[in-house]
Design a protein that fits this description.
- α3 runs parallel beside α4 (133-142) and α10 packs parallel to α13 (411-424).
- The longest helix has 20 residues, at 11-30.
- The chain contains 13 helices and 15 strands.
- The chain is of the alpha/beta class.
- It has helices spanning 11-30, 60-66, 92-100, 133-142, 165-169, 173-190, 200-206, 212-229, 260-266, 292-303, 309-319, 370-380, 411-424; strands at residues 83-87, 107-117, 123-126, 148-149, 152-157, 194-198, 241-246, 272-275, 348-353, 356-361, 365-368, 385-387, 392-399, 402-407, 427-431.
- The radius of gyration is 26 Å and the shape is globular.
- It has a domain at 80-319 and 341-355 and 411-443: TIM Barrel (Alpha-Beta Barrel), CATH 3.20.20.
- Residues 1-28 form the signal peptide.
- This is Chitinase domain-containing protein 1.
- It is found in: Lysosome; Secreted.
- Belongs to the glycosyl hydrolase 18 family.
């Protein structure tokens, strides 16, 4: 705004000009003039701890510069308990990460298989086309010691959801035995070290867990599979193992809950439990990915057994026959074992997310993985804020008319969770390899 030529500006016009200029300067200050640079540098001679990067005071610039500079000593281990890493066929970087950092892991679980059981008793194992024996060989040869390869398989109904009578049919003895035989045969043929079974969610959808009798059969199936695998040796002479995926325990008692009693009952038959302690928030309820107090509460419910655990376990034992016949004749009961969950804490693998969320406020948005996160940092150049309650970093930005809030793991947030998990004596499971930043693996 300028006065007409030939006269001086009035005081009001001068004030208006000043305000317009100030507004423009303020807008320019808020808006990055150009994206920052994402660096991809060679590995470093020192770890992230030695470089002082594990800190609450982290900047977007340090992440953009250091994210690829993991310690060149990829075989060094800081976390000495079991560490399982998931790999998915749709994320090729996960395969590379599993190979490069093989020594950091005790178990690698590629998500390859589905077991489908129909109401008519038809039982099929699908997903074998994804198996990559060359990659398995590379992972095993790079690991010192070699991590176990335990592919994840999802138990499903014939149409992908075990609804109604189909859920009951899949837990008939003959159908369960078919499923176990197929799984075991595939493990032997492919020389796997066992499997990771994801069935709890499918059972919940099918109504299996709300029916007392079907729930017992479901637990018996998991126990029988674990017992069968534990008798079979791989070509390397290792006994096969079962990892069982479990949801976070709800605070309130629910029919679909996997609780301390279930853990105690299955522990003698399952080598590890992959606990899904992430996805606390979602687009309908934006917030931290996995607040540390919530992670601790989940471990508390499962491991620091409540006083009524022994009574609950005894009650279940009375309801299910205690006989333990061979697999060929009948599925085994899973109702024997240790009732002190502190003694089996090392069988629990607490989940740590290597992904984040870019929420669009007040509702919306969704998951964000490493390369996407880096581009948002470069474009927005935000200030990262440490949430002391959840022990996670976040930042906010505006794009167009949309406000965003981003929670994504940092070295400090991961270290906090590893320290808490160590305190409980548990292990770790990571969803998923390739979604995080390369220097995260220095912490393992």
């Amino acid at each position: 705004m300028a006065p007409p030529r030939g006269r001086f500006a009035t005081a009001a016009e001068c004030l208006c000009i000043i305000l317009v200029v100030q507004a423009g300067l303020a807008a320019a200050k808020k808006r990055p003039s150009s994206p920052a640079t994402i660096e991809y540098l060679a590995p470093a001679d020192t770890s992230v701890h030695e470089r002082g990067l594990v800190s609450e005071r982290v900047t977007y610039r340090s992440i953009l510069t250091e994210h690829s500079r993991h310690w060149s000593n990829t075989s060094a281990k800081h976390f000495t308990r079991a560490v399982l890493g998931y790999v998915t066929p749709w994320n090729s970087k996960g395969y590379d990460i599993a190979t490069k950092f093989a020594s950091k892991f005790t178990h690698i679980s590629p998500c390859w298989y589905q077991v489908k059981i129909g109401a008519d008793g038809s039982t099929t194992l699908q997903g074998g086309h994804d198996v990559d024996q060359g990659w398995i060989k590379d992972v095993r040869s790079n690991g010192q010691p070699s991590p176990r390869i335990v592919p994840r398989l999802i138990l499903e109904g014939s149409e992908g959801a075990m609804e109604g009578y189909e859920g009951a049919a899949m837990l008939e003895f003959k159908n369960m035995k078919k499923a176990i035989d197929l799984i075991v045969k595939e493990c032997i043929n492919q020389n796997f070290d066992g499997v990771t079974l994801e069935a709890w969610m499918g059972w919940s959808v099918a109504g299996v867990l709300s029916d007392a009798e079907l729930r017992k059969k479901a637990l018996m199936f998991a126990g029988a599979l674990g017992d069968t695998l534990a008798k079979i040796k791989t070509k390397e002479g290792k006994l096969m193992q079962l990892v069982f995926v479990i949801p976070p325990p709800p605070v309130l008692d629910m029919p679909t809950k996997f609780g301390a009693a279930d853990l105690a009952l299955l522990a003698p038959h399952v080598h590890f439990f992959s606990l899904m302690t992430y996805d606390f928030s979602n687009p309908a309820r934006p917030g931290p990915n996995a607040p540390l107090p919530w992670v601790s509460l989940c471990l508390n419910i499962l491991i620091d057994s409540p006083p009524e655990l022994q009574q609950m376990a005894k009650k279940l034992r009375k309801e299910v026959p205690p006989q333990r016949p061979s697999h060929e004749r009948e599925l085994k009961s899973v109702l024997t074992g240790n009732e002190t969950n502190r003694d089996i804490a090392d069988q629990v693998l607490a989940g740590i997310n290597f992904f984040g969320n870019d929420f669009q406020l007040p509702r919306g948005g969704g998951p964000v993985v490493g390369h996407e996160y880096l581009h948002v940092l470069a474009e927005q150049r935000p200030k990262l804020i440490w949430d002391a309650e959840s022990e996670e970093h976040y930042f906010e930005y505006t794009k167009g008319s949309s406000r965003h809030k981003v929670y994504y793991p940092t070295l400090k947030s991961i270290e906090s969770r590893l320290s808490e998990i160590k305190r409980w004596g548990a292990g770790v499971s990571i969803w998923e390899l390739g979604q995080g930043l390369d220097y995260f693996y220095d912490l393992l």
